Amino acid sequence: MNNNVTEFILLGLTQDPVKKKIVFAFFLLPYLGTLLGNSLIIVTIKTSRALGSPMYFFLFYLSLSDTWFSTSMAPRMIVDALLKNSTISFSECMIQVFSFHFFGCLEVLILILMAIDRYVAICKPLHYMSIMSRRVCSVLVALAWVVSCVHSSVQIFLTLRLPFCGPNVIDHYLCDLQPLLKLACTDTYVTNLLLVSNSGAICTVSFVMLMFSYVIILHSLRNHSAEGRKKALSTCISHIIVVILFFGPCIFIYTRPTTTFPMDKMITVFYTFGTPLINPLIYTLRNAEVKNAMRKLWSKKLVS
């Protein structure tokens, strides 16, 4: 591999000094909100005995993956907004590609596990605790970590195969395979196909699977009591909102790596900043058990 590039220049969302200050403020607050919201969910689930069911076990890991996913690129983007010129070394760029895809894939798989959990809880209620035991849930989460590692390793392998001879300017605010493909001094047709079959297929197939599973779940609710149907419906709607908000932009970006549009960076902003921030709001505002557990935790802190 002929690689003369040791660092890349990130153009970010804008090069205008005034607009860069707006970008700094605009993304610092959502990132801090993401950290606060997800940390609150993590601490609440970890300390509350009432939230010991498999659903909250998976929600704990969803909040973790949200936090790490956002942290894999948000701090650098926020700091870069204060700099005149933003550069990232080749090795740092590869680390960002790996971590971004690792935690992104982990979030996808956790959402699938949450859908499986809701399916078993609603469609197989008598066997729920035996099927979704703590050991089974732990194995499923461990498997999600392994699959995420394999996925992100493929991304790194595809990137390291590319020769970079210059230029080294990335028209984006993060390192990802698509903007890097534009800088490679070789034909990237095969790599593009591999990217679609990897990231694109994972996003699309996962989205179809999730939506199909929730259709089955919602269809089965007709046999439940009015109270049980209302509670299950509230939970499922929360999950469906998260799935649409996360997978919609991902499918738009990763199923057409050879084609770029001016709005691509803003769409990427939505699922890298927006979804990790919205998730805690959806799971707390629409979940009475989580809100009650948070109130008890806050009361204990005030008393102590």
TrEMBL record:
<keyword id="KW-0675">Receptor</keyword>
<feature type="transmembrane region" description="Helical">
    <location>
        <begin position="233"/>
        <end position="254"/>
    </location>
</feature>
<feature type="transmembrane region" description="Helical">
    <location>
        <begin position="94"/>
        <end position="116"/>
    </location>
</feature>
<dbReference type="GO" id="GO:0004984">
    <property type="term" value="F:olfactory receptor activity"/>
</dbReference>
<feature type="transmembrane region" description="Helical">
    <location>
        <begin position="266"/>
        <end position="285"/>
    </location>
</feature>
<feature type="transmembrane region" description="Helical">
    <location>
        <begin position="55"/>
        <end position="74"/>
    </location>
</feature>
<keyword id="KW-1003">Cell membrane</keyword>
<feature type="transmembrane region" description="Helical">
    <location>
        <begin position="199"/>
        <end position="221"/>
    </location>
</feature>
<keyword id="KW-0472">Membrane</keyword>
<dbReference type="InterPro" id="IPR050427">
    <property type="entry name" value="Olfactory_Receptors"/>
</dbReference>
<dbReference type="InterPro" id="IPR000276">
    <property type="entry name" value="GPCR_Rhodpsn"/>
</dbReference>
<dbReference type="GO" id="GO:0005886">
    <property type="term" value="C:plasma membrane"/>
</dbReference>
<keyword id="KW-0807">Transducer</keyword>
<keyword id="KW-0297">G-protein coupled receptor</keyword>
<feature type="transmembrane region" description="Helical">
    <location>
        <begin position="22"/>
        <end position="43"/>
    </location>
</feature>
<keyword id="KW-0812">Transmembrane</keyword>
<dbReference type="InterPro" id="IPR017452">
    <property type="entry name" value="GPCR_Rhodpsn_7TM"/>
</dbReference>
<keyword id="KW-0716">Sensory transduction</keyword>
<dbReference type="Pfam" id="PF13853">
    <property type="entry name" value="7tm_4"/>
</dbReference>
<feature type="domain" description="G-protein coupled receptors family 1 profile">
    <location>
        <begin position="37"/>
        <end position="283"/>
    </location>
</feature>
<feature type="transmembrane region" description="Helical">
    <location>
        <begin position="136"/>
        <end position="158"/>
    </location>
</feature>
<comment type="similarity">
    <text>Belongs to the G-protein coupled receptor 1 family.</text>
</comment>
<dbReference type="InterPro" id="IPR000725">
    <property type="entry name" value="Olfact_rcpt"/>
</dbReference>
<protein>
    <recommendedName>
        <fullName>Olfactory receptor</fullName>
    </recommendedName>
</protein>
<keyword id="KW-1133">Transmembrane helix</keyword>
<dbReference type="GO" id="GO:0004930">
    <property type="term" value="F:G protein-coupled receptor activity"/>
</dbReference>
<keyword id="KW-0552">Olfaction</keyword>
